[in-house]
Amino acid sequence: MNIRFTLNGKAMDLDAAADRRVVDLLREDLGLTGAKEGCGAGECGTCSILVDGEHRLSCLMIAAQLSGRDVVTIEGLSEKDRLHPLQESFIRHGAVQCGFCTPGMIIGAAALLKRNPQPSREEIREGLAGNLCRCTGYQKIVDAVEAALLPEEKL
Amino acid sequence: MDIQIPEIGKSFARPDAAAKVTGAEKYAVDYYGDHLLWAGVRRAEVAHGRIRNLDTSAAARLPGVMAVLTGRDVPGANRQGIVHKDQPVLATDKVRYSGDAVALVLAENRETLKQAIDLIEVDIETLPGVFTVDEALKPDAPVLHEEHPGGNVLLKAEIKAGKGESALKDCHILIEETFDVPMQAHAFLETENGIAWQEADGRVVLIASTQAPFRDKWEISHALGLGMDRMRVISPYLGGAFGGKDGATVQCFLVLAALHAGGRPVKMWWNREENFAAGYKRHAAHMRYRLGANSDGTLQALHCRLYYNTGAYAHLGGEVMALGMEHAGGPYRIPHTLIEGWCVYTNNPIAGAMRGFGVAQVSFAIEQMMDLLAAKLNINPLALRKKNALRRGDQNTSGVTMTQSTGIGDCLAALAENPLWLKRNDWKQAAGPFKKRGVGVSAVFNAMGYGRGLPDSAIAKIELTEGGRIRVYNGVTDMGQGNATAFVQIAGQILCQENTRIELVQPDTDRTLPSGSSSAGRTTYTYGNALIKASESLRRKIIGRAALMLLADTLDHLELLPGRVRDLQSGREIPLEMIGSMMAAEDRICISQFLMPVVRDKLDTGKGFIIGFPHLIFSYAAHLACIEVDELTGAVEVKNYAAATEAGRVLNPQTFTQQVQGAIAQGIGYALYEEIKMEQGRLLTPDFTTYHIPGAMDVPEISSQIVETWEPSGPYGMKGVGEVGSNGPLPAIANALADACGIRLTCSPLKQERVLEALSQSRREGGS
Q1: Do A94 and A70 belong to one domain?
Q2: B241 to chain A: nearest residue by CA?
Q3: Which pLDDT belongs to residue B227?
Q4: CA distance B279 to chain A (A)
Q5: Chain B residues with beta carbon closer than 8 angstroms to that of A124
Q6: CATH code of A59's domain
Q7: pLDDT score at B767
Q8: Residue B341: what are its φ and ψ, rounded to 5°?
Q9: Which CATH class is domain B31-127+192-269?
């Protein structure tokens, strides 16, 4: 079917099978490999994307569901050469180890900050509960999200 | 990214982080390629049996199927294995666990691949299986490997020191207990995968998520009969591994597939269920302990019988058990020991390397034995550990003289001053209704490097590029631990260059040099030592060549500075770009090899081990867990956690803390709920719903204290820190549980239903 949607600020008009998984569409057809696949069942969060600003799992969505939506992947979170404050903060606070969960984690954190601009550490943990990380033990991820709340000069 | 000249000892943001946060970093799994074929295998789905017939014709006829290959199509020995070559690439006669592969399919897309795999008909005559160590060791037990002289015993070994177990009879106090730990999954988020293709000249290129690209080449060459010059293995950054990608996963399948793909790229990517079913696991173990001490708490004698359930094939099973045995007595002085080990084949998934390689298991046992002893003597468990802690100059429980940095005493001293320890009684008393609180400690250690019998070597290569940049050719995989970061720091420190001028090449058998596997806490230590030498050579070389261009008749006044060499007397400078463009390609490269030192004691024990015993260098940690138990549900929550860790000098406090916190989180999962469950060889935990790993809500804030010592053999005094943290949480939490409720669980994980049952039993006994 023909699907029109916005992807990282760009209008898309493409033909895809209606039931093609969005994670495959992004990774295989469009070359956007920032969204990962860690379980294929909505349990790990590595395939996270933003759909109309909300946190969604691209392994559980099919292409037809993108019609008319505004989709942002990790590749679209930074603006030109300027990293998103969360991305800066993840680098600075050592929130990245193997990095495989990182794109999904940052997408999840971006959605969280949109819902709740001043979360406590406990609320950050709750907000990221659907994104698994096997390397960090989460503490530095929480540090990074917390620090990203501060005015930029303090980052 | 901040521009800075990296300094040893200062936190330094990982150079790989920028590409990882934007999604730009390409892991093996992110490679697709034009005209891609997908490969997958049909697995036996029978735990033990003889293949009577294998019919691939229907699969081969399916449109979109490029090839269906069986064991008969494997051109070489069709055997894989690091120490023992006992595992077929594609089984031809017998299957020994449900994940054994019997046929390999190449298809145009994933849907066709799945259909074709389902169309393969395997007729297997089921044989009785053995799943536990007890079953496997029965005299009339079915045998997995008929040709193996030891029957189901892959390896039997012993370590003896002093008078051995006979000293137990002279001890004032004897503690006896038996412990069991389950299989654990690595649960790295990037499952096993790779992509391979054949070049026009017939060479095969393999990009794989692997911890050991150079060893893979040897393994593929043996299994497939392909010359080592006929392939190239590339290992990008891994999406986690923790030991689970240290050995054959997709490698032989993909190279074999590439040989039948007419030059098209072939991709294999195990899904999560396949990862749980066919990936490596941490060994389940059964451990019988007898520990003897004097009435003042001085440890005297230890006898252990350790049984490691190694699954269907040898892989690294014997070596994992060897390391477990070497650590079975903890980081303590125990003059008389007998440690016996049996590594046993069963019809389960293959057990192998996992962070804390055999040591996480025995730590559960010895560290509860220490608390049992402390309780019996009515002394504080931390004080008992301090009293017996190894010091430099002591002999450890294998009889090896501790000649290197030995900081367990310092770790315990640091923990004794931690507010969580000092104020533990107040904290415990503040528990709410139906809650019980407890505080437990553990003292752990973990050897670094391969140990005797296998050279632990790395070959560093560093280049001044034609464009005046510094390029480090890293030969040892970065699976997330950050060794590549340390290499940028080392090169930057020695060459006085900004991080933005330093490039990394990740392991590639055509470009980097053999530097061993990414394992055993050895990556930064071994390659780092080699890189120090190579970087110093390059520094001298750059200055020497600059002298020619600066017309300097002595090198004494020349200094390598960021981007340039300066004559400090004349003030003249020459940029690195000019030096690089002047030098011939072969002149711009420096190479250096480092070989880890080994134990020099002449030991009359451990002769059963093939490789990997004994070890010279260890890292140490003391852990403290504060837990709260819900008396109504049995749920255990870790409320606070502290670790004091000694791994020599710290090159980068940020990456050091990452390793400590991450290992503890994995250890908390291992302690409380992680457990691969099988029924007659069939997997019952195929996904993250049934195999729960800790999420952000399940891990407390972890206080990580660095206890620095100096390891004279290490690069800038460092030792590996990746593994030791995994060993502490399970025993610390078990000890905290005993402290909270007076129940001692000797079987892990300490899951809710088990705790609840123990609480009811304890109430029944208390009431009777």
Answers
A1: no
A2: A98
A3: 97
A4: 14
A5: 696
A6: 3.10.20.30
A7: 55
A8: -135, 140
A9: alpha beta
The pLDDT tens digits for B63-81 are 999 999 999 999 999 999 9
The CATH number corresponding to B17-26+457-595 among 3.40.250.10, 3.30.365.10, 3.10.520.10, 3.40.50.1100 equals 3.30.365.10
Cβ atoms B316, B353 nearer than 8 A: yes
Chain A contacts of B240, Cβ < 8 Å? 98, 100, 134-135
pLDDT recorded at residue B714: 98
Structure tokens at B360: 């996480």
CA angle B720, B726, B731 (to 5 degrees): 135
Contact residues, A window 38-97, toward B, CB-based 8 Å cutoff: 38-41, 43-44, 46, 73-75, 77-78, 83, 87, 90-92, 94, 96-97
Residues B468, B574: Cα–Cα separation, whole Å: 11
- Residues A92, A147 share a domain: yes
pLDDT tens track for B484-495: 999 999 999 999
Residues of chain B with CATH 3.30.365.10: 17-26+457-595, 281-451+602-767
Q: For the residues A87-112, what does the mean pLDDT come to?
A: 98
The interface residues of chain A toward chain B in range 99-138, judged by CB-CB distance below 8 A, are 99-103, 106, 121, 124-126, 128-138
**Domain final residue pick, A76, A107, A139:** A76
CA–CA distance, B207 with A110 (Å, rounded to integer): 32
**Among A5, A53, A54, CA closest to A25:** A5
Cβ contact (<8 Å) for B189 and A36? yes
* Residue A137, domain extent: 85-154
| Local confidence band at A80 (pLDDT 50, 70, 90 cut-offs) | confident
Mean pLDDT, chain B, integer: 97
* Per-residue model confidence (pLDDT) at position B610: 85
Q: Say whether pLDDT at B587 is over 60.
A: yes
Quote the pLDDT of residue B723.
98
Q: Which of A26, A41, A76 is the last residue of a domain?
A: A76
In this structure, which CATH number among 3.40.1440.60, 3.40.50.1400, 3.30.530.20, 3.30.365.10 belongs to the domain B281-451+602-767? 3.30.365.10
How many distinct structural domains can be found in chain A? 2
For B365-420, write each residue's pLDDT tens digit: 999 999 999 999 999 999 999 999 999 999 999 999 999 999 999 999 999 999 99
Side chain identity at residue B146, one-letter code: E
* Sign for the pseudo-dihedral over CA of B465, B470, B474, B480: negative
Q: Residues A8, A72: contact at Cβ < 8 Å?
A: yes
What confidence score (pLDDT) does residue B447 get? 98
**Is residue B190 less than 8 Å (CB to CB) from chain A?**
yes
CA-closest candidate to residue B657, choices B717, B711, B701: B701
